[in-house]
Design a protein that fits this description.
1% strand; globular; mainly alpha; single chain
Length: 271
């Protein structure tokens, strides 16, 4: 039943990755965190490291799903090189810092950082002008150099620390530069790839330094069985969602994006 649930929610994650630029972290982290606590108990070695395992496994799934979603958006003509590079390079740099900080933080710290970050993001998107407005015919504005360097580094650090891919920062950022939701969420996928790669490698390395091994099916903090099931489900979700690329009205797209963030926040607060 556990792996059936993981496959289902992996599929949901794949759908949200394609349509909203996020999914691996915001769907997988809460789900896997709770599943590990239920199956292993809060006092076990795995239970004590549940949040780290959830984030580490999420970043691993993120690599595959973001690459698949990027390919689909590239075919749909939603990607622009100048909107991806050099922002992706600085996101990768920040990811190294984020992975280091997360590996030296406690599980509850990472969990509450996740909750606080979600709350701030929702409030910013809802209350600040620019996110909910329709942008289909608005001219885009290039990111200034300072925003690219410092913003990209901050996005990478926070995203890897929380295992969420950074889309909740890149989408609002690009949205306020004039991009439609389709293009903003499309651009979030290739920008997520460096976060996933750096985060996955770092969490695998950090987990190997644990005084007590987590189990036979773990590579560092990465739960390999959960990774396999979630990845298969995610790939199915990417395929199912691809026909909807570019077909959702811009304002509706933005409203649903915020609604999904609220749903994930509620799940994390309840548990």
């Amino acid at each position: 039943m556990l792996y059936l649930s993981l496959a289902f929610f992996g599929c949901i994650a794949g759908i949200t990755t394609v349509l909203f630029g996020f999914g691996g972290g915001f769907v997988v982290v809460p789900l896997l965190y709770q599943a590990l606590l239920i199956s292993h108990g809060t006092e076990s070695t795995v239970g004590q490291a549940a949040m780290h395992i959830a984030v580490a496994t999420s970043t691993s799934v993120m690599v595959v799903s973001s690459l698949m979603a990027t390919q689909r958006h590239y075919r749909a003509g939603n990607l622009r090189r100048n909107e991806i590079w050099p922002l992706a390079a600085f996101i990768g740099l920040g990811s190294m810092l984020g992975a280091y900080l997360a590996s030296h933080s406690t599980g509850p710290t990472v969990r509450w950082a996740f909750v606080v970050y979600l709350g701030i993001t929702i409030a910013d998107c809802w209350l600040r002008r620019g996110f909910l407005a329709a942008h289909e015919h608005r001219a885009t504005v290039s990111l200034p150099r300072v925003a690219t360097v410092f913003g990209g580094t901050a996005i990478g650090a926070i995203a890897t620390f929380l295992g969420v891919g950074g889309s909740v920062m890149t989408v609002p950022l690009l949205r306020r530069r004039g991009l439609s939701m389709s293009r903003a969420t499309a651009t979030a996928n290739p920008l997520t790839t460096p976060v996933g790669l750096v985060g996955c490698a770092s969490y695998m390395a950090a987990g190997l330094l644990l005084p007590s091994p987590l189990g036979a099916w773990y590579a560092g903090y990465v739960d390999l069985l959960a990774f396999a099931v979630l990845t298969l489900g995610s790939l199915c979700g990417v395929k199912l969602a691809s026909p909807w690329i570019g077909r959702i009205p811009d304002r509706v797209h933005a409203q649903v994006y915020i609604g999904l963030l609220v749903l994930v926040l509620a799940v994390m607060l309840v548990h």
